[in-house]
TrEMBL record:
Stored InterPro entries: Fumarylacetoacetase-like_C, Fumarylacetoacetase_C_sf
Organism: Paracoccus homiensis
Protein name: Fumarylpyruvate hydrolase
GO molecular function, one term: metal ion binding
Residues annotated as domain Fumarylacetoacetase-like C-terminal: 28-227
Keywords in alphabetical order: Hydrolase, Metal-binding, Pyruvate
PANTHER family: ACYLPYRUVASE (PTHR11820), FLUTATHIONE S-TRANSFERASE (PTHR11820:SF90)
Length: 228
């Protein structure tokens, strides 16, 4: 075995519902503006745009019930999403075959430094400073598809301190899960351990320290995260 000159980074892994084993994370892809109403609230026309993606880092995913408010931002937003966890991959995957590569689904939050994202957009720069900071993607349990199937409809909701803020449905996604997988595989070689965050409905907004975030998706349960 090869010796390493430093201690290798830990493998990021997500708990799996009903199993002792963990799901190891390889890459994290996030689709932007995948719900029409959210695209409109962000000032875009969803009918004219092909899908686009950005990335978070694997270790941005966290199963913690606490979200640490990040430094150098005064406008951090929540975005409730469904996570798609892949068990296999490849290139140029056909839409008809895409779901064969899915291990399971879970809850996720795409926390965003909105003020830094707005600056990046204005200057034509990448979004990572706004999206890929530590702890920026709280996640719930991964529910295996061989137990729950492949959810393509069902309520996706988010509450802040028991006030409903986001109230969408998975069937409102512009680009469905098979289409996202197929599209990504044209530009990347997908593989086991990849996670796709599938977009957020309308109603995004800011959080403050002390807020309690609750997210729920039909069939995937719910999770609570406190902002500290």
């Amino acid at each position: 075995m090869a010796d390493y000159v430093i201690t290798p980074p830990r493998t990021v892994a997500i708990p799996v519902a009903g199993q002792d084993g963990l799901f190891p994370v390889r890459r994290v892809y996030c689709i932007g503006r995948n719900y029409a109403a959210h695209a409109v609230e962000m000032g875009h026309d969803p009918n004219r745009e092909p899908p686009f993606f950005f990335q978070k880092n694997p270790d941005n995913l966290t199963a913690s019930d606490r979200f640490v408010y990040p430094p150098n931002s005064g406008d951090v937003h929540y975005e409730a999403e469904m996570a798609v966890a892949l068990k296999s991959g490849g290139r140029d995957i056909a839409v008809a075959d895409a779901l064969d590569h899915v291990f399971g689904y879970g809850l996720a939050l795409d926390m965003t430094r909105r003020d830094l994202q707005a600056q990046a957009k204005k200057m034509g720069r990448p979004w990572e400073i706004a999206k890929a900071f530590e702890g920026s993607a709280p996640v719930g349990l991964i529910h295996p598809a061989d137990r729950i199937g492949h959810p393509d409809r069902g309520a996706l909701r988010l509450w802040i301190n028991d006030e409903l803020r986001q109230d969408g449905d998975l069937d409102q996604m512009i680009w469905k899960v098979p289409e996202m997988i197929a599209y990504l595989s044209r530009y990347f070689e997908l593989a086991a351990g990849d996670v796709i965050l599938s977009g957020t409905p309308a109603g995004v907004g800011a959080v403050d320290r002390g807020d309690r975030i609750r997210i729920a998706i039909d069939g995937l349960g719910d999770m609570d995260v406190t902002v500290i």
